[in-house]
């Protein structure tokens, strides 16, 4: 198998995922690689959209541009702003055929000027992901593949397989409304890393692992009690 | 540079064409005639009829008296000009500048073209043999001026190519008809016994003007090259155009690729010197069978990058049909733009929308899957969710207003809201449960309503009251009730989006 390059120290910045990044080799989020997301229902597609835009927020920090390639897109651009991404820095490619999506994805991954490329398709096989992975390794562009109809969860050449599901939000006692978006982030597969499951909330423009939240609550309670 | 002109005279343009269309006419004398004042007047004759003394302008009855077997064909008005135009367009392979000389001639500006065919002699021979093999009876001549070439092609008897500055000498022996004079002037010259140009060329100009008018002097000056003659080109000359004739007809994709590459190299070198770049380009192939095939490309940012432009053309080469072969390639750039001089990557290009690499990527995508698939959105001043974004046509447009994030907006927005069944407390509370796609969702948390009014100046209908709700599984939805609560349970509810 062609080389999965070890992350270059110093080159990759943190993407703000906190403890989840520790699951990856060398505790660095692998940029310049393909990540795979399961996106079976529209609810899950929405959760993926939010989670990925959170990562994009960090990847596009230096003024990059990202491409969003899909067949029947329902993503609503203004919502990206909630996750810190300027929607006008995202270019949407709306295609008709799956073949074209793969071609466009590969062309885009070969282009070094981009921060990230996201593609939504029904299914992808090992050979196709490997082509994408090799292109991404050359250009160091991060790619996200959203599989909406994975028949069998066959092996792919992606560095990680994510499964994001929504979690009920929590509010302060007695407050009305809906709280900040929360997800259960599952890493089903990580190349050379440790799969795991985390709970994350998006608030104040960053990811906050729920354990940290609990601690914060605890310490404030201690303060109150003390 | 000394200008050189070639003129081609189609002696029997219309009848040659008819003989090509109808082979049975090939070996019989026939004329083309048109009705005029109740009689048929001949407008064109073929070679055989002409040798019997039948001339255009005669009445058909007289011609029939001369030659009883003469066949008559009805004239199609305007056909001759159309034919001439087609032939002029065909001649584009010899020079980019062609003018029509109605009713039966073409004028070619061949300055700087003849050497490509190995000299003027070979050039003229090529044109004449090609046209003759196509069935047209032609005579052609080359000279420094249009007038001299015209005269020599019609009346010359010695040689068709007049050397540079030799037109005065060549004209001496020709009849005055070779000067394209008015019929009355010609008649007067005839009466005076001035049968060749040499008879009157040395007469003082003031005398000639008094007797024959200024028009004659002008024609004489134009033929001799003392006065410029404006000629109107049949095809507008593209300022950025390169041509590549091929020795053998090209039929393979590789051959076309080589042609594209060579033409791009020449054109881009020129553009680079002028600090310009291509925004759109057309590549044309002239096929042996007379058809023109073409492919065109467009770019988002002006570019003179050979490699990039070649890639754009490469995607489209498969759409060309060379058929029997392509004999001439032309690359035109109808739209070029200034490129501000750029520093060659001392620091690697900054990432962002101004990045040339991104523009090149989008060009490639647009070339393969169409420019209408690429979207970039800017905020628009509408609250109505479907209208809150507008498509941006250029990747350089900046948003004119800020993106709003003060109100919840879903990550996934359905293109059309979908109908749902809802149980909701009256009158304005969020739903308690809703059924979407055969699945019941119990609402645990809810936010709203956020009323969004219809923009009545754009369309009519009910306003929407949006609720942001979370169900028992922690999934978040965007629902709305269409219109006010009306009390009889006939309110319609819709789902419009999914939150992260």
Quick overview:
Chain A is built from 4 helices and 9 strands; from the N terminus they run βαββαβαβββββα.
Side-by-side strand order of the widest sheet of chain A: 3-2-4-5-1-6-7-8-9
Largest sheet: number of strands, sense, barrel closure of chain B: 6 strands, antiparallel, barrel
Tally the structural domains of chain A: 1
**Helix content bin of chain A:** 25-40%
Low-confidence spans of chain B: pLDDT under 50, at least 5 residues?
none
Shape of chain A, please? globular
Shape of chain B: elongated
So, CATH architecture of chain A?
Answer: 3-Layer(aba) Sandwich
- Alpha-beta content class of chain B: alpha+beta
The percentage helix of chain B is 25-40%
Tell me the CATH superfamily of the largest domain in chain B.
Reverse transcriptase/Diguanylate cyclase domain
Taken together, the total number of domains of chain B comes to 4
CATH class of chain A: Alpha Beta
Largest interface, C-beta closer than 8 angstroms, per-chain residues = A-B, 56 and 57 residues
CATH homology superfamily name of chain A: P-loop containing nucleotide triphosphate hydrolases
CATH third-tier fold name of chain A: Rossmann fold
Specify the structural class of chain A.
Answer: alpha/beta
Indicate the CATH topology of the largest domain in chain B. Alpha-Beta Plaits
